[in-house]
């Protein structure tokens, strides 16, 4: 893999010395290969040209002012080839960075394949980002182009970008570029597209929960390895239909849908932003076989079965969720009452890929909170390859390997889907001495089930109450099972005596009343929570601050609490 991303820009990306062996190692082991994303599409288009590849959400006209599209594999290949040539004519060359700020629509999928064919580096960002974030990404990337849309529910994202990026061409997919011009066209010859599977394909961005978002360069081989982990865990089958409600900008959607759909020749049905009635309608009308859903939505459906029962979800085989600890009660309802298994995904843009499935974690209580110790010494779990994900726990202070159950430490990981370092970063503190990625997540070997990890929280997220360090995620997961709550999370707030105390932050379901602090404490006490972990304050919100992945922004929540 090249040490730099482009000959023409000052972007820096150097593979650490203790990871230089990876390319040969993973190629020799068969964990990396010669495929590219667009190569997978070409194969699928040859084998099943008329199978649907991409399906827009039905209300696209209200989102972007244009009609929804349904593209076959042949049409997606045609459209992306013509779009690649059009972008090439605009001066985009291999290694150039291109920022994409688009919702989940067929335009975005065409652009992924088109830019991939050119060998450009794709950097997708959330549609919620504005001038401040755009300026940061542009300064880091020096992009050759910024592709967005002039109409997104009344917002002109193209105009916003032009105000910020005076030296970067801004392309509006509705006014400046017809990404579907090649549909139905024919070409006498196929251009020689970029075909290096170890070239950087994307630079996604961390959520910024611990500071400024960092760029995460990932190659085709890294993404394909991650896609194989997901496809194996969820048992994707050839021709299945997948519904993606998460923005197509990060691990959840790219590793969970875009790459697995290409690997397994599946139909990708799009949805964005999350609209619960429309999402449920698409699940039924598009005969969806697999989807991911945010935990708050699943919790609401489990508590309001009438929402679920008004639809026919007979085609739905399994549901994935994650990003925060799940509610065991929710999993129990979905599996016992609705007949739909829940898979718990725990991942990151850097390449963490822990997955709790009915096969490796049959108990709903285990699957909600625990993850198999994939690749840990002495542990054996079925995956697409024995060393697809290597994990262990390191002591936060000393770096020594933790083998004792119940002792928290930092999760460190390696494998073919793990990245090689951040963009424009000196690498300090990112990897261990032997090349494992330091996740920043605090985990422990579960005393009651030593084959599994329990996620304790972020190393920097722990609540320090009078010298006792507490995991907020443990309390979150118990609160989410409390009747009448749509969302729940705890955060620290400053206290002169103890340093920090615990505040419960709640969003109340419609037609429900907020519990008193005493009632909430009684509920948690009945669940077996220790007295010193009980919240000492309760605040009600209309919504909790979350990043585009649905993770609670605990620092932002704390700021809001302390302003009250």
From TrEMBL:
GO terms for biological process: fatty acid metabolic process. Residues 42-423 form the AMP-dependent synthetase/ligase domain. CDD domains: AFD_class_I. The keyword Ligase applies. Residues 474-551 form the AMP-binding enzyme C-terminal domain. InterPro entries: AMP-bd_C, AMP-bd_C_sf, AMP-binding_CS, AMP-dep_synth/lig_dom, ANL_N_sf. One of its GO terms (molecular function) is medium-chain fatty acid-CoA ligase activity. SUPFAM superfamilies: Acetyl-CoA synthetase-like. Keywords: Ligase. PANTHER family: ACYL-COA SYNTHETASE, MEDIUM-CHAIN ACYL-COA LIGASE ACSF2, MITOCHONDRIAL. Belongs to the ATP-dependent AMP-binding enzyme family. This is Acyl-CoA synthetase (AMP-forming)/AMP-acid ligase II. It comes from Congregibacter litoralis KT71.
């Amino acid at each position: 893999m090249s040490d730099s991303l482009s000959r023409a820009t000052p972007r820096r990306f150097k593979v650490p010395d203790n990871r230089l062996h990876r390319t040969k190692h993973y190629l020799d082991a068969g964990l990396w290969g010669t495929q590219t994303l667009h190569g997978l599409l070409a194969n699928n288009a040859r084998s099943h040209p008329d199978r649907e590849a991409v399906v827009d959400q039905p209300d696209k006209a209200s989102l972007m002012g244009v009609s929804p599209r349904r593209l076959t594999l042949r049409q997606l290949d045609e459209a992306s080839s013509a779009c690649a040539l059009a972008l090439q004519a605009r001066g985009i060359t291999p290694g150039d960075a291109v920022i994409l700020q688009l919702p989940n629509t067929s335009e975005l999928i065409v652009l992924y394949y088109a830019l991939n064919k050119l060998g450009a580096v794709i950097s997708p960002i959330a549609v919620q980002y504005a001038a401040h974030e755009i300026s940061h990404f542009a300064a880091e990337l020096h992009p050759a182009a910024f592709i967005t849309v002039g109409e997104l529910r009344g917002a002109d994202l193209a105009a916003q970008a032009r105000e910020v990026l005076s030296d970067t061409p801004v392309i509006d997919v509705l006014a400046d570029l017809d990404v579907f011009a090649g549909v139905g066209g024919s070409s006498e010859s196929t251009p020689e597209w970029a075909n290096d599977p170890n070239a950087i394909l994307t630079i996604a961005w961390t959520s910024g929960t611990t500071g400024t978002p960092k760029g995460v360069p990932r190659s085709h081989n890294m993404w394909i390895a991650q896609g194989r982990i997901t496809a194996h865990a969820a048992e994707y089958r050839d021709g299945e239909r997948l519904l993606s409600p998460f923005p197509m900008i990060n691990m959840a959607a790219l590793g969970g849908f875009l790459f697995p759909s290409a690997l397994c020749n599946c139909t990708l049905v799009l949805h964005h932003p999350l609209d619960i009635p429309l999402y449920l309608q698409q699940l039924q009308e598009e005969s969806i076989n697999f989807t991911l859903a945010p935990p708050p939505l699943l919790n609401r459906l489990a508590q309001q079965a009438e929402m679920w029962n008004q639809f026919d979800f007979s085609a739905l085989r399994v549901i994935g969720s994650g990003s925060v600890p799940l509610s065991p009660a929710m999993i129990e309802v979905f599996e016992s009452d609705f007949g739909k298994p829940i898979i718990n995904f725990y991942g990151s843009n850097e390449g963490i890929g822990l997955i709790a499935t009915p096969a490796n974690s049959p108990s709903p209580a285990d699957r909600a909170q625990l993850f198999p110790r994939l690749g840990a010494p002495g542990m054996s779990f079925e995956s697409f390859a024995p060393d697809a994900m290597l994990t262990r726990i390191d002591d936060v202070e000393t770096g020594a390997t933790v083998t004792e159950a119940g002792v928290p430490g930092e999760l460190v990981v390696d494998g073919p889907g793990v990245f090689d370092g951040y963009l424009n970063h000196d690498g300090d503190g990112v990897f261990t001495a032997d090349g494992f990625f330091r996740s920043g997540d605090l985990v422990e070997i579960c005393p009651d089930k030593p084959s599994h990890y329990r996620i304790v929280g972020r190393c920097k997220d722990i609540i320090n109450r009078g010298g006792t360090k507490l995991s907020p995620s443990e309390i979150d997961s118990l609160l989410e099972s409390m009747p009448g709550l749509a969302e729940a999370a705890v955060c620290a707030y400053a206290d002169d005596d103890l340093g920090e105390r615990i505040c419960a932050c709640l969003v109340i379901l419609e037609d429900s009343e907020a519990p008193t602090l005493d009632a909430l404490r009684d509920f948690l006490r009945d669940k077996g929570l220790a007295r010193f972990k009980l919240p000492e304050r309760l605040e009600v919100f209309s919504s909790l601050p979350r990043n585009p992945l649905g993770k609670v922004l605990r620092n932002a929540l704390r700021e809001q609490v302390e302003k009250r």
